[in-house]
Amino acid sequence: MQVNGKTLIAIAIVVLVGLSSTRTLDDYVDDYTSEAITNAAISYATARGINALVSMLQSSEVEAGVGIVSGSMTIGEVLDPLNDMIERFSTVMTWVLASLAAQKILLLLASHQLFLYLVAVLGISALLLLYHGRSRAQSLVLRCFLVVVFLRFALGFAVALNSGVDYLFLDQQLHSNDREIKNFQSSIMRVEVDADSDDIRDSVIDFWRGLSLDELQRTISRGIESFINLIAIYLLKTILLPLGFFYAVILVIRQLWRIDLEASAARAGS
Questions:
Q1: Distance, CA of 119 to CA of 17 (rounded, Å)
Q2: Please, which of 6, 139, 155, 244 could form a disulfide with 261 given CB 3.0 to 4.6 Å?
Q3: CB 9 within 8 A of CB 141
Q4: Predicted confidence band at 72 (pLDDT cuts at 50, 70, 90)?
Q5: Residue 186 and residue 45 in contact, taking contact as beta carbons nearer than 8 Å
Q6: What is the C-alpha separation between 22 and 15, in angstroms, rounded?
Q7: Does the pLDDT at position 23 exceed 80?
Q8: 3-class secondary-structure state, position 74
Q9: What is the rounded radius of gyration, in angstroms, for the C-alpha atoms of the chain?
Q10: Is the pLDDT of residue 234 over 70?
């Protein structure tokens, strides 16, 4: 038995409304964004901790160790490039956290009960008008329905795809550089856990005073390299990829709004 075009469209509408009521994808992307926010916040807190340590060293005016002529250069001066990099990293992480928070809010809106009701109402209206409505009203309601359904799923699918990119390409690099930053923080703050603030300050200063110029440069360059890598990864996964997605969303919505119901039904029935 041949199925006509309107029946196929009606089946598609019912399937989309049914899928919209499920929360499997919503729960997955909510967990993913929450974990991403937590990881980004930890990276930001680690960077600010290193920044506080660098500021303490710069204010202490500790003379650098072996290799610097006449001891005229202080460790604070040597640490200036690292301090500048941390400030830039902190600025980028502020935008990263804002981007992740905005994505989470949009996901909450797309999965809110009112949005689900809107999908259902538009779906039922599209079904009724499909068989008992004028051509203009049919096309208008169907376009609105398709746009709303697309928005309902689009961000969730984008986050799911983003997590796939993370798993295949970025996750290992992110955790590796994050680990390097934490190791860098531990290596420059070699103190006892139960030490008081004065002992911590003296211990850190003694550690840095004992480094030669080459050791200082190697230590600082490792930290700067890890911060640069983290900036690139976070910019790609939380800002550049979502911007590319939103551009694609605009293009798709434009195409959906141009759909002609009668032509679509005729093609589906042929």
A1: 7
A2: 139
A3: no
A4: very low
A5: no
A6: 11
A7: no
A8: strand
A9: 28
A10: yes
